[in-house]
């Protein structure tokens, strides 16, 4: 029996996915779990595994195509079996046809609506149109039944910018956004404007942390072939402290506060088009060497655009470390649905009181951003106290 290959939904807000490449050719045998294709979502470029076994056939999507979530793009069939015949997409209506026939030099215009009929537009596209200052009643929708998609909004914005640029002497240029960069902008805006952030800052003596890295690194490098970093140590410490403070490892829902029993630390990693959160699952029970190996592998795959769905999903708490950029301190924006994120500055030598005298110690500034609907001030302070003592 034929198995359909569809454009997967890797997150709730995802509407489409861009096909980057097929890792198998039509007619080749595919085994279940084998890497089959690469797609770009709003978060990252990820590799998708085959859902079953068979011969790859009936490919309808090609590199660069942007495809709605859930649409069949190929089949896995038995030897000698033909892929099912798919229904042709609905023919464009007269209303849509008349819209397409208008001047291509103008900003796309909405298909004619009945009097007082609101344009069909997804919530995501509506938010983007508001951010870009576009009138949705003037946009042409290419989605089902003429609905306006995020691609329609971005196309209108690009057309508007191009028209304005050609009419005047250009004084600047607009750099097009990738799906990753666009969603990062949308997500941070949504989080900052809808989640009540508050911040707790603590300066922590890192003498023991630095000593532990120097002491443990040689054995881990010899056994695992990877260098132990301060971030690895912080992932382990934060995860174990979260086990004692479950309110921090939680999410806000309409029904109430969702306490998570799994502790999955998302590590913010810089990539070409923005930042992705690569997840180390069950970090509270993982050994240091295992954390170091996972962090290195995730970092390498992120830089090579080879992340997989499991690599970027399920995070319950995020660590963002900018210490390697000589940043003293910063505040970070929460990644929904998580309730908190820890911003880590650089470890620097400072003059501090030591046993009633002045001494020089390595110190780091930690900033916890919390969702006040989930975490109150005392709980945030208690978590930071426990983390400081653990460090």
Helix content: 25-40%
User: Could you say which overall geometry the principal axes of the C-alpha atoms support?
Assistant: globular
The number of helices is 8
Would you tell me the overall average pLDDT? 85
Q: Uncertain regions: pLDDT < 50 for 5+ in a row?
A: 89-115
Distance linking N and C termini: 56 Å
Which structural category do the helix and sheet elements fall into? alpha+beta
Rg, nearest Å: 25 Å
The portion of residues forming beta strands comes to: 25-35%
Question: Could you state the order of secondary-structure elements as H and E?
Answer: EEEEEEEEHHHHEHHEEEEHEEEEH
* Secondary structure tally: strands: 17
Q: What do these coordinates show?
A:
The chain is an alpha+beta fold and 391 residues long. The protein is built from eight helices and 17 strands. Strands 9, 12, 13, 14, 15, 16 and 17 form a seven-stranded mixed β-sheet that branches. β16 (348-354) and β17 (357-371) form a beta hairpin. α2 runs parallel beside α3 (150-167) and α6 crosses α7 (288-303). The longest helix is centred in the middle third of the chain and has 18 residues, at 150-167. 32% of the residues are buried. Residues 89-115 have low confidence and may be disordered.
Task: Please describe the topology of this protein.
Layout: E1 3-6, E2 16-22, E3 29-30, E4 35-40, E5 45-49, E6 54-57, E7 66-68, E8 72-77, H1 94-100, H2 123-132, H3 150-167, H4 179-194, E9 197-205, H5 207-224, H6 230-242, E10 250-252, E11 257-259, E12 265-271, E13 274-280, H7 288-303, E14 317-321, E15 340-344, E16 348-354, E17 357-371, H8 377-390
Helix pairs in contact: 2-3, 5-7, 6-7, 6-8
């Amino acid at each position: 029996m034929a198995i359909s290959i569809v454009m997967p939904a890797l997150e709730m807000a995802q509407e489409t996915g861009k096909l980057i490449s097929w890792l198998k050719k039509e007619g080749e045998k595919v085994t279940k779990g084998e890497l089959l294709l690469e797609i770009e979502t709003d978060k990252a470029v990820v590799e998708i595994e085959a859902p079953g076994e068979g011969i790859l056939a009936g490919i309808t999507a090609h590199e660069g195509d942007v495809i709605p979530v859930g649409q069949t793009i190929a089949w896995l069939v038995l030897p000698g079996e033909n892929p099912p015949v798919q229904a042709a997409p609905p023919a464009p209506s007269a209303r849509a046809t008349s819209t397409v026939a208008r001047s291509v030099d103008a900003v796309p215009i909405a298909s004619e609506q009945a009097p007082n009929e609101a344009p069909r537009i997804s919530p995501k596209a509506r938010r983007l149109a508001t951010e870009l200052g576009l009138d949705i009643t003037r946009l042409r929708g290419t989605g089902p039944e003429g609905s306006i998609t995020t691609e329609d909004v971005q196309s209108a914005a690009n057309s508007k910018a191009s028209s304005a640029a050609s009419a005047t002497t250009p004084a600047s240029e607009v750099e097009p956004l990738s799906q990753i960069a666009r969603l990062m902008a949308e997500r941070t805006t949504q989080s900052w404007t809808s989640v009540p952030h508050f911040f707790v800052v603590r300066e922590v003596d890192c003498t023991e942390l630095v000593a532990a890295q120097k002491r443990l690194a040689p054995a881990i490098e010899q056994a695992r072939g990877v260098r132990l970093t301060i971030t690895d140590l912080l992932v382990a410490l934060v995860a174990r402290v979260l086990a004692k403070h479950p309110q921090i490892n939680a999410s806000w829902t309409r029904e109430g506060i969702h306490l998570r029993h799994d502790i999955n630390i998302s590590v913010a990693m810089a990539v070409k088009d923005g930042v992705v959160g690569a997840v180390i699952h069950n970090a509270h029970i993982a050994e240091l060497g295992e954390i170091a190996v996972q962090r290195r592998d995730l970092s390498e795959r992120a830089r090579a655009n080879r992340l997989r769905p499991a690599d970027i999903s399920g995070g319950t708490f995020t660590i963002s470390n900018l210490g390697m950029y000589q940043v003293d301190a910063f505040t970070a924006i929460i990644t929904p649905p998580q309730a908190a994120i820890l911003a880590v500055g650089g470890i620097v030598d400072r003059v501090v009181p030591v046993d009633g005298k002045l001494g020089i110690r390595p110190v780091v500034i930690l900033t916890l951003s919390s969702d006040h609907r989930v975490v109150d001030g005392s709980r945030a302070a208690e978590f930071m106290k426990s983390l400081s003592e653990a460090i």
